[in-house]
Automatic annotation (TrEMBL):
InterPro entries: FAD/NAD-bd_sf, Retinol_saturase. This is Uncharacterized protein. It comes from Owenia fusiformis (Polychaete worm). It comes from the Eukaryota. Keywords: FAD, Flavoprotein, NAD, NADP, Signal. Signal peptide: none annotated. The lineage of its organism: Eukaryota, Metazoa, Spiralia, Lophotrochozoa, Annelida. Belongs to the carotenoid/retinoid oxidoreductase family. CrtISO subfamily.
Amino acid sequence: MIFSEIFGFIAANPAFVAAVTVLVIFVSVLSIFLGGSKPGSNPFYSKYLRKSEPLVTDLKARDKVLKQGFVTKKLTEAYDAIVIGSGIGGLTTASLLSSAGKKVLVLEQHDQAGGCCHTFIDKGFEFDVGIHYIGEMRSETLTKTLITHMTDGQLQWVDLEDCYDIVALGDAAKARKYPIMSGRENFKKALIEHFPNEQKAIEAYVQKLRSMRGATYGAIGTKVLPKWIVKLLIATGLVNMMTTWFTESKISLQDYLDSLTTNDELKAVLAYPFGDYGTIPKETTFAMHAMLINHFLYGVSYPKGGASEIAFHMIPTIERNGGKVLVRAPVSKILTDSEGKATGVRVHRSSGDVDIPAPIIISGVGVINTLHKLLPREVATNSSLYKYVGQGNRLQSGMGCMSLFVGLNGTKDELDLKAQNTWAYCDVDVNKACEEFFKCSAQDAVNSEIPLLFISFPSTKDPTWDERYPGKSTCVVITLARWEWFEEWKDTKINHRGEDYDSVKGAIARRMWEQTCALYPQVADKVEYFDCGSPLSNNYYLGSTRGEIYGLDHNRSRFQPDVYMHLRPETEIPGLYLTGQDIFSCGFAGGMYGGLLCASKVLNRNLMDDLLKYKKQLAK
């Protein structure tokens, strides 16, 4: 009763609402700048930006940066902070802290740094594992400014085709294909050309995307403002006046599309890149989808020299102030004292575990790993996130995936391949097709048509490829897959999981390739290399929990304000912070902004404001 009266009063008194909002913001600013320790240094400056240098192709030189193995003699006497995991979130936080004068140690369990930004070379072919295309790099956006700073201006970007994605619907051999274009107007124009009777719906969709761009920044406020203020905003409904993000997050992507049009073909095309965050349209929110599409509308690019260039140029910015990025350093435990404060980490070594102290511990390996694997339960429960996290709770692991890596004989010109991706769906009812596939047992899945395929040719996107790998091309094919199909082999060793495992994995991989060749028949007889990774592979190489590559599931529950506000860098465990894609959203940009938010909290200063000022400074 009392809340209904409050909401009625708010609706009848908009001037009061405005006054309270101003007061809340004022109090928030005071609490941020007067309630904490002295703000740290501003990490943004142009001092170290320099002219781009030639691409380093010598593998030994690259390994000296990307594959620095952990040994105790490399450790200095003391570090200001330790970061667990070298994905884009961990590297972002470490780079910004280093630029602010902190000495940071980054520990990576894999044999090379980069997380999903790394590449691997096998039998003369190089493959990316997670970076397939990045938005907002064609112009001087805030996102580009951030990564440019953290790589000293050395990371270069190459634009994909203006038609960067193709949506293929129906039987692959005779699929109906729709181009997805860069730029808001070109995007809209191409859709209207293929759906002339749906012009009104398409224009409404594009206009809605534009309005959601600003709403995203409002949502960030719930991760920056003190929790007591956010709770007040939620309880009074003022949070929905601060941003429309949470109103749109109540709506599933599918419900929004159903309200927009009755054309099922258009709905499938508008929903097409949901595989980029791994949650089907009926389960995810329109707000999450709008954020992704807006990211791509600025144009799509790829790192010149391949995805490993990202970590290769970020690591020196961490080392500049005495920090290190060390691999083959699996952290088995976050050390805590008798009062529950994080005091260091324990690195597991066959020769004997190594404890490393530090006053600040930053976890970039995901909320579930941090709270359920690295901390004692009695400490983990001190975090407000704990009760929300885990299978069956509101925050759980996202869907697993299968990744197929194919090496081809022939150049992109010989094989008639372009710098673009294809999203292939066997049915316009993408929800039904995916749900039926996910309900299958492992044995049924190997005989089923795969409902979703992301098909990419990384070799076409990098202008240095032909010089580095003449006469060769690569193809990467990805689909969503259930963890349960492979769970029985979770305790087996990689490359020794047995014939039954190889049979299931191999059968799904061959099915993926058959459907790919139906769309690209010219590559069918050009195969020189063929390998596939399962959800178990993701656990091994990326430190996942259930084979996921996008961290927490991007479902509606995650983006409700009472949960979303808790996905922030501070954990209520003194000395422990979180970074990466679980803090903001998945993907390169999402993980990077998660890292920025974490560095802001550690330094106790508004780095978003610093970044905006830095962008203006560079523009001059």
